[in-house]
Amino acid sequence: MSGPLDGLRVLDLATIIAGPFAATLLADYGADVLKVELPGVGDGARNFGPFRDGKSLWWKVINRNKKFMTLDMRKPEGVALVKKLLTRFDVVVENFRPGLPRSGGYWGYTSRWCCFGADRHAEALGGDGRLTCSPVINSEGPSRDDCNPR
User: Fold this and answer.
1) Which residues fall within 8 angstroms of residue 76, CB to CB, at 6 or more apart?
2) Of the candidates 121, 130, 133, which has an alpha carbon nearest to the alpha carbon of residue 85?
3) 122 near 91, Cβ under 8 Å?
4) Buried b / exposed e across 67-88, counting CB within 10 Å, b at 16+?
5) Running DSSP on this structure, what letter comes out for residue 101?
6) What are phi and psi of 35, to 5 degrees?
7) In CATH, what number does 9-147 get?
8) Domain ranges for the chain
9) Distance, CA of 150 to CA of 142 (rounded, Å)
10) Strands in 20-71 per DSSP E
11) Quick check: 46 and 39 in contact, CB under 8 A?
12) pLDDT digit string (tens) for 1-46?
């Protein structure tokens, strides 16, 4: 699909509705979106009714215009693959619970960022990216100061 975001590569690591829908809007405007789901389980939205032909209509709507792959990011091999993928994408959409994977070195770094896009991931991993998402409200409440690197 072509559009104003044609050529933009988006890695969708988000689950359920809000994050995947944000990535879908980018896909609707022409971005190349790769949705990553947990093997054997998939996105939780796959279980939301109503269903048609055994498939969740919610899942179909919030994941249209995407390519798909499965990857277990709980395993070291999965984390290693995500690190490789991050260098190939311009934007990362994720909605992990606060503190995961940003803390504990899950991605290979422990810096605290709340402005999370592929450039932040790639920069922390020694690469360079192009886009940053807008600031989010972190688990400690809204704090613009926390969106700057420390």
Assistant:
1) none
2) 121
3) no
4) eeeebbbeeeebbebbeebbee
5) T
6) -90, 125
7) 3.40.50.10540
8) 9-147
9) 17
10) 32-37, 51-52, 55-56, 66-70
11) no
12) 689 999 999 999 999 888 899 999 999 999 999 999 999 999 999 9
